[in-house]
Amino acid sequence: MELRLYDTLSREKRAFVPLDAKNVRMYVCGPTVYDFAHIGNARPVIVFDVLFRLLRHTFGEAHVKYVRNITDVDDKINDRAARDFPGLPLNEAIRKVTEETGRQFHADVGALRCLRPSVEPRATEHIAEMREIIERLVKGGFAYVAEDHVLFSPQAMNAANSSLPRYGALSNRSLDEMVAGARVDVAPYKKGNTDFVLWKPSKPGEPSWPSPAGIEAEGRPGWHIECSAMAWKHLGEHFDIHGGGIDLVFPHHENEVAQTCCAFHRERMANYWMHNGFLQVESEKMSKSLGNFITIHELLKDWPGEVLRLNMLKTHYRSPIDWTMKSLEESAKTLDDWYRVAADVEPGKPAASVVEPLLDDLNTPLAIAALHGLRGGDVSALAGSLRLLGFLSESAAQWEGRKQQASGVDAKEVERLIAERTAARSRKDFGESDRIRDLLAAMGVAIKDSKEGTTWEIAR
Ligand code: AMP
Ligand code: ZN
Q: How far apart are CA 44 and CA 245, in angstroms?
């Protein structure tokens, strides 16, 4: 079966044919490193990790290149640095913020069992490439200099008589309507009200670099140009897949396409544009003001990363997710069970019943249903399939041990009480055996009797 992916630009599911099967190339917009990542940010990271693993499975590990950037120049970073380290020079404070946040991000997504991308470029290390693209855009008549800014003109792009894509095609918008509907208080240096910033002057003390296009004052890049530059440097002018959350389609990705295609006279930037749906919490939009803003870091204190990962993958990546406590509890139970039956089994080939739904535009809910189907049958295929999806990174004993540690339960004491209870039951002293069961329950331990004996787990 072939891989099929839904492409936001053509608005259809299409067979995935890489430009070069020996070098499949994917770019995903990464985090802006100024604060802990929240559980919504984890969604694209997990979704595209599954795609990365599936591409490696399909084309071979050595033949897939996955680039996810780190945005380390941004107003939000500057504001946070000034707030958190008021005594330090701004540039030093910024370095502290971006380094600490970057480290935290890697710890978080590592716990979610996401593989490191092949390259994680930082925006501040690609200023030369940004300048080069901007120079090309100015020379080509797509961008202009005004008051030490460089601005891109979507109208110039759509007026160009060439095989460029139409500005607005990706987000399915008409430029005329955008022009008509634009705000009236547009910055005075803009010629057109939909023009966007490629480069801007830095305020005193802010990070700054020599400017392109003959501008004397030093400046810094706009956000959109960063991704065009990093994708170009690491994947070339035209590559296979570009991904991110649905909120990035406009303006970020529309502007990336515009910059890259106009700079390199290309019809396309990426052949497949993929966007994950949004995540909300207990049926509400996640926001600081509603008090339901959850960081990955906080969640990891209560749940193993694989539980968060499974919980994310139970919903198809293009649908919205409602993140609930109830669903987390179910995901935890499912993983406990999979660990018990499959973690210590020699993994076999991933089952076709799991791989096929994945090949159909990453249908993870169907793949998970197939995993449940393997549970009572081919457990070695279950083990192999779970590993393909990034699960079972620990042994069954490690999994149990960590859970007990997290709950503060003394495993030896639990085993001793269970032995006492078994003895009580065999002498038919049910009063005593019930007393011990209640005692264990009060310690947060649930027990289960079966023909093979009594097993226990931490009750949630
Ligand atoms: P940001 O740091 O806000 O640029 O976001 C980083 C990535 O997380 C982008 O791909 C966003 O589209 C994605 N993202 C942010 N919030 C959510 C959310 N609530 N649900 C799903 N994806 C999100
Ligand atoms: Zn981007």
A: 6
Domain containing residue 192? 4-276
Determine whether the annotation assigns residue 252 to a binding site. yes
Give the closest ligand to the alpha carbon of residue 229.
2
| Total structural domains within the chain | 3
Pocket test for ligand 1, best of 35, 41, 70 (most atoms within 8 A of CB): 41
| Cα-to-centroid distance, 351 and ligand 2 (Å) | 35
- Which residue has a Cα nearest atom 9 of ligand 1? 245
Question: Do 376 and 431 fall into the same domain?
Answer: no
Scanning the structure block, which residue is given the tokens 């800014």?
149
- Coil, strand, or helix at residue 242? strand
Nearest to 126, CA basis, from 20, 234, 262, 17? 234
Q: What is the pLDDT of residue 407?
A: 73
The arithmetic mean of pLDDT across residues 133-150, rounded, is 98
pLDDT-based confidence at residue 460 (cuts at 50, 70, 90)? low
- C-alpha of residue 231 to centroid of ligand 1, in Å: 19
Q: Assign residue 116 the CATH number of its domain.
A: 3.40.50.620
Section 273-297 average pLDDT:
92
Q: 120 and 69 in contact (C-beta within 8 Å)? A: yes
Residue-wise pLDDT for 317-359, tens only, equals 999 999 999 999 999 999 999 999 999 999 999 999 999 999 9
pTM of the full structure: 0.90
Distance 201 CA to ligand 1 centre (A): 27
Whole-Å CA distances, 53 to 114, 387, 391: 9, 10, 12
Q: Which residues line ligand 1 (CB under 6 A)?
A: 29, 31-32, 40-41, 43-44, 244-245, 247-248, 276, 278-279, 286
Residue where a domain terminates, one of 244, 276, 308: 276
